[in-house]
Design goal:
TIM Barrel, alpha/beta, 10-stranded mixed β-sheet, 3-stranded antiparallel β-sheet, 13 helices, Enolase-like, domain 1, globular
Length: 405
């Protein structure tokens, strides 16, 4: 069996997605997700110009060697564009291998470690009352874990809230330039503990809660927030600070016992190595699309398991259903899986392009036993949804200083 053709497919069924289709000379094909939100065409060009020509004629079963070839074989390594391109190839090859073996990918990884996949939903609102009403709705739907985000009074467009938009996808459309949002650390720190105090008073401690700082705080500010939130027993505090300097998290760890999660922008194990080995974090949130595929993330999970770190993959809607399916196979296998972020299965528009093997029930994702990843892509329907350039917002302090998004 040889790789005969590779297609790079860009479509926008509600969001922009870069899909890789690897086709063999025997007609078996595999799919991979190469989406990097806001930089989609950079990955598409990387694949078309620099990766695809190197793979034609290769044996698709040689997953490890092809991964090493694309990573070690290029002098310019790492980074989100390179690793998303490699990830798409890797996912597609695992998909092919599963189809040829007539087995779902999780069986090739080592089989199930659990029956189903615990998820966390997003409760957000313009006021604490509305956020907690949303939390109540998610609890009724069966969620056992929920992330709470609320508009900070005096700050329009606070991260994690939708404002007047109907859904998250709407925040990604009609952007000639990146929108700008204000930030005030003092207003945030004075407000967020009350959100969690009221959540516990209203719903008790049976529901697990998480919160995403989105890297807006310095390490000592994160430590302060962690101490303020300790009475409310969070499952984890996500992206408390930027971890370009991995020792930042030792500062946070020394001052609070709130579990810490990070990793959605990580591209390789080297972004997390010290965080894991120093036991500075409790959850690693790296996604399969952004960290080079199933092959390296499986190794990351094995390494993290040695240090009591659990996997909690990023699950934003700017990852395509191919990535979500790949992560479901990974999650059902990983012995140190913790929780999967879950926004939903998308719009009718999205589901007209992608089909997937997942369904949601009572707070859990269930995965069927279709061979490979179990995903398909309707190329004809996808042509109706052309690429639409869009950007993530940028953040500025109230004095105009550019801050972390």
């Amino acid at each position: 069996m040889k790789i005969a053709e590779i297609k790079v497919l860009v479509s926008s069924p509600g969001r922009n997605f870069v899909t890789l289709k690897v086709i063999t000379d025997e007609g078996v094909y595999g799919l991979g997700d190469a989406t990097v939100n806001g930089r989609e065409m950079a990955v598409a060009a990387y694949l078309e110009e620099h990766v695809v020509p190197c793979l034609i004629g290769r044996d698709p079963h040689q997953i490890e060697d092809i991964w090493q070839y694309l990573y070690k074989g290029a002098y310019w390594r790492k980074g989100p564009i390179t690793m998303a391109a490699i990830a798409a190839v890797d996912m597609a090859l695992w998909d092919i291998k599963g189809k040829v073996a007539d087995l779902p990918v999780y069986q090739l990884l080592g089989g199930k470690s659990r029956k189903h996949i615990t998820t966390y939903g997003h409760a957000n609102g313009e006021t604490i009352e509305k956020t907690l009403d949303h939390l109540g709705n998610l609890i009724e739907k069966g969620f056992k874990v929920v992330r709470l985000q609320c508009v900070i009074p005096g700050l329009g467009g606070t991260y994690g809230t939708l404002g007047k938009k109907k859904n998250y996808e709407e925040l990604q459309s009609d952007r000639p330039l990146p929108p700008e949002q204000p930030w005030s650390t003092s207003k945030y720190l004075n407000f967020i503990p009350d959100l969690f105090r009221q959540a516990r008073e209203r719903f008790g401690y049976n529901i697990q809660l998480v919160h995403d700082v989105h890297s807006r705080l310095t390490p000592i500010e994160s430590a302060q927030l962690g101490k303020l939130l300790e009475p409310y027993n969070l499952m984890f505090l996500e992206d408390a600070s930027i971890a370009d300097n991995q020792s930042n998290y030792q500062t946070i760890r020394q001052h609070t016992t709130v579990p810490l999660a990070i990793g959605e922008t990580f591209n390789t194990i080297w972004d997390a190595k010290e965080l894991i080995s120093n036991q500075s974090i409790d959850y690693l949130r790296t996604s399969i699309t952004h960290a080079g595929g199933i092959t390296p993330v499986k190794k990351m999970a094995n390494f993290a398991d040695l240090y009591n770190v659990k996997m909690a993959p990023h699950g934003a809607p700017d990852l395509s259903p191919i990535c979500h399916a790949a992560q479901a196979h990974f999650n059902i296998w990983a012995p140190n899986f913790g929780v999967q972020e879950f926004i939903g299965f998308g719009s009718d528009k999205l589901n007209s392009v992608f089909t997937h093997p997942l369904h949601f029930e009572n707070g859990f994702i269930y995965l069927n036993d279709k061979p490979g990843l179990g995903v398909d892509y309707n190329e004809e329907t996808a042509t109706n949804y052309k690429y639409n350039r869009s950007y993530l917002p940028v953040t500025r302090l109230e004095d105009g200083t550019l801050w972390y998004w």
